[in-house]
Write a structure and sequence with these properties.
Length: 270
Amino acid sequence: MNLALQSFYSSEVSPELLDWVTSESTDPGSTRWLIFALVTFVWLHVIHRLTVSLTKLCPPFTGDSGQGLRRWIKQVLNQDLTFQHIKIIYPTAPPRPYTPMKGGISNVWFDRFKISNDCPEHLESIDAMCQVLTDLIDDEVKSGIKKNRILIGGFSMGGCMAMHLAYRNHQDVAGVFALSSFLNKTSAVYQALQTREGALPELFQCHGTADQLVLPSWGAETSATLRSLGVRVDYHSFPGLLHELCPGELERLRSWVLAKLPGETGGARE
């Protein structure tokens, strides 16, 4: 596996196990497939949340790691989000200067000129990250996972990144999810879909009505525009939810994932 890509596989496993599962397999029938499952669920994430607590508001522009997301999900659900037949990958966005933080370094998937849906996208950084994440997806396909057994999604900026990755570069994945996310009004995603051919992956989308960072209207407008371009959207609004995750949202996501990636009978590999 490419060394740059290996850093994207953020897993709480021993270095020895990580070396083993990311090494090349010469035996397609090896028990390694018990670990690698038959489907893949790639969850992209950057924390840009406003969380009410005893200290009121956490800083809204704090970049986090893939494992930070994993721990956050566990805190919300009081258990890990796991599936018997699905491998979940929690990539970590690379550190980069982030314009909304006045050029401060943060773990973000791409840069923005500002947090708004009425400005141009920073396509240079978006396209560069699409290529890196495409390499990750290609590695999964090379390991034996069919493209139509891969889901891509994320929270906040991760959801936006997932929509760019899937609808511009990988329209043959099983589905896309975007939680508290949005696309800019003139997004390159919309332009790509105007010349689409064939079926498009379904989008599972959730948004809190009290989100103060990514306005609910931005999410709703994204949903409406994608629908008009032929995307089937499963949209859910959560009353009173800020820019964060909630148990009901994650349970709906779990059900959607299982509907898109059902277990296979007999345990046979595709």
